[in-house]
Specification:
Blueprint (H helix, E strand, L loop, with lengths): L1 H13 L2 H26 L2 H4 L5 E5 L7 H5 L28 H8 L19 E3 L17 H11 L5 H6 L1 E5 L2 H10 L5 H24 L5 E5 L8 H6 L8 H21 L7 E5 L1 H10 L8 E5 L1 E2 L16 E2 L6 E3 L7 H13 L5 E2 L3 H5 L3 H4 L4
Parallel strand pairs: 1-2, 1-3, 3-4, 4-5, 6-9
Antiparallel strand pairs: 5-10, 7-8
Helix pairs in contact: 5-13, 6-9, 8-11, 9-11
Length: 379
């Protein structure tokens, strides 16, 4: 019986080739349609054509103009010669664009995200919460700390959907002002006191990241670690270290970076749907300081704009007759602690597509390819 039924079925199909083709085509169309639907649903925003959002947090290195809206006090970054390479001072502490501006373009954001404190800001692409002077700990009156910036994001999170916030990129760079202030106030601090300060900074960062993820819906974060702070032109100048870097600050930055890396690895254990990119900014700056010509610099220890032995003070102040270099691209630092646009572009390129020698455990390009639909599901 079985053989007969199979023979009859085979015979019937053999006599109706058009029916077979139509059946196969229907199945193929269904499979392709299902595949396309799944693909379009799960592709990251930068590939699927949806608007990617960018949110940035931190201090003056990521500030795009919040300082001038926060306080009525004079903001040197809003005055020439800041913005000299783009013909307009914008509140950025550089001669041109900064790292998040370049990364934003790479992930599909045409125009840089605006300062969140600008009452006329268009927040459809995201926003910058970073502001000059920001620290991880403390509650300063003249700026917003990192926890306060995260709280500000919580106030506004309803402007974006859960899916938008899950697909967005969150960049932060903070801690430098904590350690610069500590070193100035405690130049002879003991090892124990240094470690206490570092632990306090990282505790605040950890708590804020947890809130950003659990309450804010962040799933993709990009973290830039600290440079060798003791080698900044402003530090060399103020502490009169000559050709040497200030040991206390380099020590604290190095320990901070080691523990920050460990912290990020540990925080993703309970927060299993949190992904991150960690850029070794410290090593990249050190490489440029130690081997200027290889990276196209003629000066990596003096600022392009300012006065003093290291040209490190007063850039942007009308009452200071600052020196201004003739070619910004030959300098690593634009002012006493901030990089030139050339350096910012190079760092952004490494952040976005660098290998694991400079960014771990994945670069931003790979981070943004993580399907947000998977990350939306709570583990």
């Amino acid at each position: 019986m079985v053989r007969v039924e199979k023979a009859e079925e085979t015979t019937e199909l053999h006599h109706h080739p058009i029916s077979v083709a139509m059946a196969v085509n229907r199945n193929l169309v269904a499979v392709v349609g299902l595949f396309l639907a799944f693909t379009l649903f799960s592709l990251p925003a930068e590939i699927s054509g949806e608007q990617t959002l960018l949110f940035t947090f931190g201090d003056s290195s990521y500030d795009v103009g919040n300082k001038k809206f926060f306080s009525s006090e004079f903001d040197p970054a809003a005055a020439w010669p800041y913005g000299d390479s783009v013909d307009d001072p914008t509140g950025r502490w550089s001669d041109g664009l900064i790292v998040p501006d370049f990364v934003g373009k790479m992930i599909g954001i045409g125009e840089p995200v605006p300062p969140v404190l600008d009452p006329k800001a268009d927040l459809s692409r995201g926003a910058s919460f970073a502001i000059a002077g920001a620290t991880a700990r403390g509650v300063p009156s003249d700026t917003m700390s990192f926890p306060q910036q995260v709280s500000k994001f919580m106030e506004l999170k309803g402007r974006w959907t859960d899916k938008q916030r899950a697909e967005a990129l969150y960049m932060f760079y903070v801690g430098a002002d904590d350690y610069l202030k500590f070193a100035k106030e405690n130049p002879s601090a003991s090892q124990a006191d240094r470690y206490v300060c570092i632990a306090s900074v990282l505790t605040k960062i950890s708590s804020s990241l947890y809130d950003l993820h659990k309450k804010g819906g962040a799933r993709k974060i990009a973290v830039q670690n600290l440079p060798p702070l003791g080698c900044l032109p402003i530090v060399r100048q103020e502490f009169k270290t000559g050709e040497e870097c200030l040991e206390i600050l380099n020590f604290m930055a190095s320990v901070h970076n080691e523990r920050l890396k460990r912290l990020l690895g540990q925080i993703t254990i309970p927060l299993r749907n949190l992904r991150y990119s960690l850029l070794d900014f410290h090593s990249e700056i050190l490489r440029r300081i130690n081997d200027p010509s290889r990276h196209g610099y003629t000066d990596t220890t003096t600022s392009c704009c300012g006065i003093g032995p290291r040209n490190a003070f007063g850039c942007g102040y009308s009452n200071v007759h600052s020196n201004l270099c003739s070619y910004q691209r030959s300098f690593l630092f634009y002012d006493g602690r901030h990089n030139t646009e050339k350096t910012n572009r190079e760092i952004a390129d490494l952040f976005y597509s660098g290998d694991k020698n400079v960014v771990v455990p994945r670069n931003i390009r790979d981070l943004m390819r993580e399907p947000a639909t998977d990350l939306l599901q709570e583990s």
